[in-house]
Amino acid sequence: MSVVPPPVIRLDNRFARELGELAVPWQAAEAPEPRLLALNEELAAELGLDPQWLRGPDGLGLLLGTGVPEGATPVAQAYAGHQFGGFSPRLGDGRALLLGELTDTRGRLVDLHLKGSGRTPFARGGDGLAAVGPMLREYVISEAMHALGIPTTRSLAVVATGRPVRRETVLPGAVLARVAGSHLRVGSFQYVAATGDLDLLRRLTDHAIARHHPEAATAEVPALALFEAVVADQASLVARWMLVGFVHGVMNTDNMTISGETIDYGPCAFMEAFDPATVFSSIDEGGRYAYGNQPVVAQWNLARLAEALLPLINDDQERAIELAVQALGGFGRIHAAAWSDGMRAKLGLPQGLEAAVVGSLVSDLLALLQESHVDFTTFFRALAAAARGDAEPARGLFLDLAGFDAWRERWAALEPDADAMDRVNPVHIPRNHLVEEALTAATEGDLGPVERLVEVVRSPYRPRPGWERYAAPAPADFGAYRTFCGT
Which pLDDT score is estimated for 487? Predict the structure, then answer.
């Protein structure tokens, strides 16, 4: 009987090799009773990994970090960050490891990274562990974001460890394996800037340019060109969040990527009743990271990146600040254009309309939505029915019927395209009550609700007969929703 040889997996150690000052070699903690809870087979195939092999003992070893290929150098990454506005000069991967870089089937270099893999030197008193619920939350919501076309890290797998995790209660432990363009953050640059090591800052900048914006290498001032590219990516990203009602919940500078991908699905959730002041995070008592504040916070975070890059932008600090401020000014223009274009598409309006016309319609609509506490996602799908001649599904959501009727008359006069609306307005988002229901069941050993929810959110624009509960807002008795970071 022939024995099938194990697959050859090459994990590069480029980050550890080029930026050793930011990389602490480390070993993942052993898992006493590993058990696969979720495997993203589509993503595994994109990475050139055999899903069947990943389900076996050697594959689980890779997903836990306890059995990495020869030549790999797992490391905990160093970074700093402003957390709720307060600067911490040394954060780093307290419960995470970068296993290394993979080249996927499209030739793209990506990170393979773990969360919940045990204490590292950056743990700052934490246990380094993660519970099943928060790791499956990241799996569900990152898959939803990917299906919605929003740049994001993606979850490859969630593996139960068999180790208990102590939070408010004792919970089953798990490790998340995720994939990203890289795990470089604004906080990575802040950490290096705080050391005063100009050579290291230059090497980090060159590394980021090579990974994400190679065109910046030939610019007159590469660091400034990198900053401009990150500003543009983040302005577009946050607009996409806003267009689907996503609230990140913890927009610290260590959670803003240089790649322009959404990262860290801790206290995140999707807004239901429209309100710019919506906050879900249990620790965001002042509303710093509320839905409506996200563009302002993103721009503030980018200003911190600019500060870190100043020595590479110009030797004259005043001139460097002038150039950085000018580049940062692009955020507002790019974000406004992405938001306006996205809302025009959600309303089914033709291109070429004057910005003032779209802007007036949008601002008046949002005021009506807020006044009547209308569900953001439900409304736009119902509005497509109004474009087809049946206004009642949308109209019935409002308290101010006369106000909505007047707005609808203005909108209908522009001949909206209902089919185009259905292509950009989701039926399904990860509804908060369904996420909690699924995570509670999974914590108790039933993975069925998580699997069904993932199946639904992977096809966000397709109505599913018989699955209407997955499109409905939370029932009235669900109450105010609060999320937690999971540490």
Answer: 60
Q: How far apart are alpha carbons 114 and 122 in whole angstroms?
A: 15
In the sheet with 35-39, reading across from the earlier edge strand, the strands are 23-25, 75-77, 96-103, 109-115, 170-180, 154-166, 35-39
Q: Is the pLDDT of residue 251 over 80?
A: yes
Distance CA 64, CA 38 (A): 13
Alpha carbon 401 to its chain centroid, in Å, reads 37
CA distance 71 to 13: 8
Q: 181 near 111, Cβ under 8 Å?
A: yes
Active-site residue, 254 included: yes
CA 439 distance to own-chain centroid: 19
Please tell me the distance from the alpha carbon of residue 337 to that of residue 399, in angstroms, as a whole number: 31
**Quick check: 165 and 173 in contact, CB under 8 A?**
yes
Please, are residues 74 and 27 in contact by the beta-carbon 8 Å criterion?
yes
* pLDDT tens profile 256-301: 999 999 999 989 999 999 999 999 988 898 999 999 999 999 999 9
Confidence category of residue 477, pLDDT binned at 50, 70, 90: confident
pLDDT at 1 over 70: no
Residue 111 forms beta bridges with which residues? 101, 180
**Given 3-state DSSP classes, what are the helix, strand and coil percentages for the chain, each rounded to the nearest 5?**
45, 15, 40
Q: What is the mean pLDDT of residues 70-81?
A: 96
In the chain, how long is the greatest CA-to-CA distance? Answer: 78
Token duo for residue 305: 């990146």
* Residue 29 φ/ψ, nearest 5 degrees: -70, 145
- Cα(268)–Cα(356) distance, integer angstroms: 32
Marked catalytic residue, from 254, 264, 284, 375? 254
Q: Tell me: the pLDDT tens digits for 302-321?
A: 999 999 999 999 999 999 99
- DSSP line for 301-326: HHHHHHHHHHHHH-SSHHHHHHHHHH
- Give how far Cα 480 sits from Cα of 138, 304, 366, 369, 484, Å: 21, 33, 21, 18, 14
Q: Report which of 311, 346, 95 is spatially closest to residue 221, judged by C-alpha positions.
A: 311
Q: How does pLDDT run across 346-375, given as a tens digit for each residue? A: 999 999 999 999 999 999 999 999 999 999
At 11, which amino acid appears? L
Q: Which pLDDT score is estimated for 285? A: 87
